[in-house]
Design a protein that fits this description.
The structure holds two protein chains of two kinds. Chain A is mainly alpha-helical. In chain A, 69% of the residues lie in helices and 2% in strands. The chains are: A mainly alpha, B mainly alpha. At the A-B interface, helix 2, helix 3 and helix 6 of A face helix 1 and helix 2 of B.
Chain lengths: 186, 52
């Protein structure tokens, strides 16, 4: 069985994984000049939705319901990614954007969202049922570890960066399907 | 604009999940799910080149 301490640590690592994924996408945008399309932005939003469950687990104490939120977010995010995969699945279609280790970013997104579902299922299988009850005692509940604080701060920071970036890219209109420049920087 | 609003909602939801009440975070999370799906439906208008 996974203890509450280890459960919180695993949630912090999961949150850091989400932060790294978002940071890599952001680096491709800033350094590579690849402007994200609306579906790409929706997948980033899916990753931030995926982060809500781990943030609740770290800051409010672990609960099975929080894993339910994460699974729902992963299903929604996978739906966004599947649509983009299917848009470019026809032979001869070069896909959208550059590739990472041979796969497009939306394919990686799909893999990560599915991995999130598997991770939640494994956690629900092996976490101790007493972890919820331990939270109620408040002894360990709100004692957020350093790594947990860093993980939470990084994902909130990346949400802010994505908000600012989307405002600059799309302005106050609907984001174009194939963006070529930042609307507010024209 | 809708995507910017979605990211703003996500940022507020995450901050609330970290520092606010659980009830408020739950309401914000549910609202963000709904907005995310609505934004998706707004943008997913192209016909997929597939037949099943």
């Amino acid at each position: 069985m996974i203890s509450q301490r280890n459960e919180l640590l695993l949630n912090a690592f999961g949150l850091l994984g989400i932060s790294v994924t978002l940071a890599v996408a952001f680096l491709f945008q800033i350094l590579g000049g690849e402007l994200p399309c609306p579906l790409c932005l929706l997948q980033r939003a899916g990753f931030l939705l995926l982060a809500v469950g781990p943030v609740l687990n770290i800051c409010k104490g672990p609960k099975s319901a929080h894993y339910g939120i994460t699974i729902l977010a992963a299903i929604v995010g996978a739906g966004f990614a599947v649509r983009q995969v299917l848009l470019h699945i026809v032979p001869g279609d070069g896909g959208y954007g550059s590739t990472v280790m041979g796969l497009h970013m939306y394919t990686w997104s799909l893999i990560i969202f599915l991995g999130g579902i598997v991770a939640c299922a494994v956690m629900l299988l092996f976490r101790s049922p007493e972890n919820d009850a331990a939270v109620e005692t408040k002894a360990t509940v709100l004692r957020v570890s350093v790594i947990g604080s860093i993980a939470v701060a990084s994902v909130i920071g990346l949400a802010g960066l994505n908000f600012a970036s989307t405002v600059v890219e799309c302005g106050f209109a609907t984001c174009p399907d194939n963006p070529v420049s930042y609307i507010l920087l024209k | 604009m809708y995507l910017s609003l979605l990211f703003l909602m996500l940022m507020v939801t995450l901050i609330w999940a970290a520092y606010g009440s659980l009830r408020g975070a739950s309401v914000l999370t549910a609202a963000t799910f709904v907005v995310a799906v609505l934004v998706y439906l707004h943008h997913a208008t192209d016909t997929l080149p597939l037949s099943f």
